[in-house]
Amino acid sequence: MLEALRNQVYEANMALPEYKLITFTWGNVSGIDRDSNLVVIKPSGVAYEDLTPETLVVVDLEGEIIEGDFNPSSDTATHLELYKNFKDIGGIVHTHSPWAVSFAQAGKSIPAAGTTQADYFYGDIPVTRAMKNEEIEIDYELKTGSVIIETFQKNKIDPNRIPGVLVNDHGPFTWGKNPEEAVHNSVVLEQVAEMTYHSLQLSSDNIYMSQVLLDKHYLRKHGDNAYYGQN
Amino acid sequence: MLEALRNQVYEANMALPEYKLITFTWGNVSGIDRDSNLVVIKPSGVAYEDLTPETLVVVDLEGEIIEGDFNPSSDTATHLELYKNFKDIGGIVHTHSPWAVSFAQAGKSIPAAGTTQADYFYGDIPVTRAMKNEEIEIDYELKTGSVIIETFQKNKIDPNRIPGVLVNDHGPFTWGKNPEEAVHNSVVLEQVAEMTYHSLQLSSDNIYMSQVLLDKHYLRKHGDNAYYGQN
Amino acid sequence: MLEALRNQVYEANMALPEYKLITFTWGNVSGIDRDSNLVVIKPSGVAYEDLTPETLVVVDLEGEIIEGDFNPSSDTATHLELYKNFKDIGGIVHTHSPWAVSFAQAGKSIPAAGTTQADYFYGDIPVTRAMKNEEIEIDYELKTGSVIIETFQKNKIDPNRIPGVLVNDHGPFTWGKNPEEAVHNSVVLEQVAEMTYHSLQLSSDNIYMSQVLLDKHYLRKHGDNAYYGQN
Amino acid sequence: MLEALRNQVYEANMALPEYKLITFTWGNVSGIDRDSNLVVIKPSGVAYEDLTPETLVVVDLEGEIIEGDFNPSSDTATHLELYKNFKDIGGIVHTHSPWAVSFAQAGKSIPAAGTTQADYFYGDIPVTRAMKNEEIEIDYELKTGSVIIETFQKNKIDPNRIPGVLVNDHGPFTWGKNPEEAVHNSVVLEQVAEMTYHSLQLSSDNIYMSQVLLDKHYLRKHGDNAYYGQN
């Protein structure tokens, strides 16, 4: 079932240790088949060296296991909530990558300070508000998704143009049109977190790049007038 | 003698350089057999590339060498003191891992700032008080154990729920139900030290996560109602 | 066409991931043949593992493609502007190396704080002013070159003695008498950015080395009286 | 000539890139044969991959080349000055290792903040005063040695107990009873610089360890009453 997607999700999961985004099992990737509304996701707590395409779990959007011998990731409900609300995305990544977590624990967004971020994120990478006690106590993982969606809706952020978020006191989620692109965005987020952390220590001035420079870099890689690459 | 435990302790020692927790011989792992009250520990000052299961030393809880051709780790008395007082633990790790030492030298606990820590440590990772001159001068290694135990008793910390400590101006000790878990906790401690160091530079606000979020993450992985992983 | 230069530019491009100066495709190297005024440059957005000498693109100083099946790097116009104005240089490197970007995003030059920098850069490594809206909106990549040249001319900096720059809110460009030397200078710039960042956190005093020490180190490696190495 | 020492110096030089203490050719190791007063040292500016025991240069204490086809390291005069004045040392290392240089550029000693340093250095690792113009202009490398010796004599520091120094705005020199031990001390210096940098950012309090703890750790590894290791 969903063999091509299984392979994509498997490869994307295996890319996390390769890019040094995870320690132990602290991360997971999923992908969705928008025709059948089925999601392929990493099993919970399984070591990366034991992972194969066959160990991945297929769930529907209500979280029912459709195929698979393992429990799905404990973060599955968060993934599903994002797929339900961000209609264009095809893959999601969650990690505890260290620079991103440093911002998340400080409750700080990553400001759009330079062109590296602008090449992939059309503005700041937002941090969610702290979750309320009742959100943590009941349906925590689903509510983690809800607070992400609230962050984007309240601040009128387009998830297609800001493909990632920091969950307060927790860590990053990123997404993309497929699992591979979601991993790519996770690498970028970690890298800009590292660089902008250091910029913030070097300067107490306004750290933001100009809107015109942000437009230029984002739009030369994305949208109808893009001219980066071979297309 | 104690062949299975010897192999566990050997594997756990060899994991320290693999996880980049040690430089040269700056670390040691032990394991205890609670039936015989015998402890298997790394020999002192032996390079990791020369280590084999056979070079490990077996001592009793009074520190007498029961089997082995080498001197046991100079930190043996600290390990024994912890085994005598923390009755449930089966393995102990000591390293000079750099981020943990950075906090230890600053005399600072690692605050529970995010879910990465909460997944393994049910609160702050404490730093001991500075040792007194007479504690350093006489039975230094044993007293290093005593000051760890004092830290947990005085602050009513359960060593099963906070499986690690920073010895002031020295470095981390971690433990677990076996040597492998103790190493695992040593990796986690080092990682959260790195991340929380950076969070503390980013924010002068209250760095603590909420108690409810701490409960949620610790208890979804530990205890009767845990639901992380495949159990 | 230009087979020797093609190989040099290819080797220099492949050195970027080896020296960990780039993530994904975030960098490019070019080289110029001063006899024919033709420039060999990396194609845009092609992964390093897919790069061969044959995939490189040959352009003239007006940016016309003379040979090659791919689009040249989107930064080509910046390279050409530098070749036109810095007459002695034979190779150019652009990366988003993290420590250099940290200074660029903070809008800070890298001060000449020690002998490591002095061995290669005869003074501070300057940051450009922020680009004006109209410079970003029209001919952005060419104007990126212009603002670099302005920085050197206005401040009377000799590009042969300061073989690199930080473009504000963007990242580093370096150059040299050939592509290999340009990569070498890119490694040095990244390394001194890392070290001087930390020196600046350690000390609020004047961070500059003395002019006499700067002279000594630069001139013992460069110019008629150099005595470093085997010449 | 001096085949055993040649091999030791060769191995010690090759250990520098292995321990990530150097970039390019920014470092050198020498060793002395105290019977003949001959010194074996790395040739100047030769890449580590081209180094063999045969390429090393033998010089006498006046710097005359006794054997070798290459120029000796440009820092040779510094090494010789140290061998002449620190009578017990058998090997010297110079690097531009990044954390050590960060302190050197800031003009700061590395304070004895924890037991990692105390295991190898019996106190602070001192930084020299800035060199005077005339010291830089005439016999610079020899005077670099002189300012190191002045630092130890003026502050009554025993070079056998503090086997390393930071040359102001330059970088570290370390030494030991042989080239291997000198490299070992260079690794330790870099590691404690990294850790203590972070401790200093975490705490504005007194960062020093107690004298009694410093005594304990240094003396349990060094001197007549040492009990660390297998002796």
Give a concise summary.
Chains A, B, C, D: Residues 7-197 form the Class II aldolase/adducin N-terminal domain. Chain A is an alpha+beta fold.
Question: Please, could you describe this protein's structure?
Answer:
4 copies of one chain form a homotetramer. By secondary structure, chain A is an alpha+beta fold. Chain A has one domain: 3-Layer(aba) Sandwich (L-fuculose-1-phosphate Aldolase), CATH 3.40.225.10. Chain A is 41% helix and 14% strand. Chain A contains 8 helices and 7 strands, in the order H-E-E-E-E-H-E-H-H-H-H-E-E-H-H. Chain A has helices at residues 3-18, 76-85, 98-106, 115-118, 133-137, 140-154, 179-202, 211-221, and strands at 27-33, 38-41, 57-60, 65-67, 91-95, 164-167, 171-176. Chain A has a 7-stranded antiparallel beta sheet with strand order 4-3-2-1-5-7-6, sandwiched between helices. In chain A, helix 2 (76-85) runs parallel beside helix 6 and helix 3 crosses helix 7 (179-202). The two termini of chain A are 33 Å apart. The model of chain A has no long low-confidence stretch (mean pLDDT 96). Chains in contact: A-B, A-C, B-D, C-D. At the C-D interface, helix 7 and helix 8 of C face helix 3, helix 5 and helix 7 of D.
